Amino acid sequence: MEYGHHQRRLRLTGRHAAALRAATAFQTGLCACSAGSPSGFEQPVDAGWESATEGSYAGSPALAVAAGRGHTCALISGGAVACWGHNDSGQLGNGTLTDSVVPVMVVNLSGVLAIAAGGNHSCALLAGGAADCWGDNSYGQLGNGTTAYSIVPVAVSNLVGATAIAAGDSHTCALLSGGGINCWGNNNSGQLGNGIPNDSSIPVTVSNLHTATAIAAGYNHTCTALSSGAAYCWGSNPAGQLGDGATADQGVPVMVSNLGGATEIAAGRDHTCARASAGSVWCWGFNAFGQLGDGITTDSAVPVTVSNLSSATAIAAGRDHTCALVSGGVAYCWGFNAYGQLGDGIAIDSAARVRAGSLSGSEAITAGQTHSCTLAAGGAVYCWGDNSFGQLGTTTTSGMCTEATLKHPCSLTPVAVRW
Fold first, then answer.
1. What torsion do the CA atoms of 222, 227, 230, 232 make, to the nearest 10 degrees?
2. Around Cβ 110, how many Cβ atoms within 10 Å?
3. What Å distances lie between residue 225 and 112, 190, 262, CA to CA?
4. N or C end of the chain: which has fewer CB within 10 A?
5. Distance (Å, rounded) from C-alpha 14 to C-alpha 405?
């Protein structure tokens, strides 16, 4: 949210550089997965456009992808957005409340530069520094001055000069051109960063930040990287996800301890990760499933180095898992894996990185609550993990996840969404 997370923020290269990064946030839930066929999901399964949605953007390449709690969105060449998966609050933005296992076009939206997917809401950064959001609005996370959900995009009020956007479980934040940050929505743990313990349905200014260069929104916390390479976090902190060496919530930004050179940041439910320009990755916070990637399952309130990972070019944090791209566009993931969200073909948690399928050439990565996706060169999108609501963008998966007595479709390795 990247919980999705995941912020899910995306690092884009080549022709995708104009598409900024997004983030996501997550909700709790456990299951165990098993392969449903001897094939072990070795071959990607293509998912086409729903015929009713085909139009001028059908078949266009994707430029960015963002994974939320149970839905996924893609920015499409030409500045439009398509979403798929869960739609109980209108988070697909197509004017309905109906789930979709194939991409549907977000209505009344154009000129989009970047996207973010949160718990049950989605947002788009527009040319000119404005933003639109849609979906759940129980805490004002759409930023339009109300708490009424919307099945179509609505404009975020009083937002000027936004250059990046991140969506948490029920709050949203935007990076501003001057290095400041605005946030809006749920503030039960101080995740809006303004020092006032009240929700806000319009953007408020995060205190004492003037040189921010990257942003990530987790379940109930938010983080940023500064131009100096330092990182600051605020909000919920029971597992040390703020990285300040303590476990007390903070309503204003606090510095992450023992961290320098950070250029990208990702926030999950109760953990956070940062990437340096040289390719090293650090994580901190909750680690019961190995999502910190240091080979153990002990929480850490200060950053620890992800083991055996170098030359990372992008990171993403899901609810309780983490993923990274390395040179060559190979994807690795670690942490919670009951839904197959690590993509390694088995449903076993891992405190060390494992390769997600045989993917290479990926240019961006995002992590949702219990699923993950990559953007490949040429605009193809691949997803894996939980497919309970169709968030993988395919009508066919060969395995089932078991949560209590309920069965949920899933894929233990990447499947393709065709553009």
1. -20
2. 12
3. 24, 18, 6
4. C
5. 46
Structure confidence by residue, pLDDT tens digits, 200-239: 999 999 999 999 999 999 999 999 999 999 999 999 999 9
- Can you read off the two tokens belonging to residue 308? 């055996």
| Phi, psi angles (nearest 5°) of residue 53 | -105, -5
Which tokens in the block code for residue 301?
A: 């309130």
d(C-alpha 377, C-alpha 360), whole Å? 9
Q: Which residues neighbour 257 within 8 Å (Cβ) at sequence distance 6 or greater?
A: 243, 244, 245, 302, 303
pLDDT computed for residue 418 by the predictor: 67
Q: Is the separation of the CB atoms in 33 and 340 below 8 Å?
A: yes
Number of H helices, E strands in the chain: 0, 30
pLDDT higher than 70, residue 283 = yes
As a 3-state breakdown, the chain gives helix, strand, coil percent values, each rounded to 5, of 0, 45, 55
Contacts of 141 (CB under 8 A, 6+ apart): 118, 121, 133, 167, 168, 170, 171, 172, 184, 185, 186
- Report how far apart, in Å, the C-alpha atoms of 361 and of each of 324, 326, 347 are: 13, 10, 25
Task: Please state, in angstroms and as integers, the Cα–Cα distance from residue 142 to each residue in 48, 116, 123, following that order.
Answer: 30, 12, 8
DSSP-assigned beta bridge partners for residue 21: none
pTM over the 0.85 mark: yes
CB distance 381 to 18 below 8 Å: no
Q: List, for residues 111-159, the tens digit of each pLDDT value.
A: 999 999 999 999 999 999 999 999 999 999 999 999 999 999 999 999 9
Question: Any idea how long the chain is?
Answer: 419
How far is CA 146 from each of CA 113, 139, 157, 203, rounded to the nearest angstrom? 25, 9, 10, 12
Look-up of token digits 């934040």: 173
Q: Which of 109, 111, 191 is nearest to 122 (CA)?
A: 109
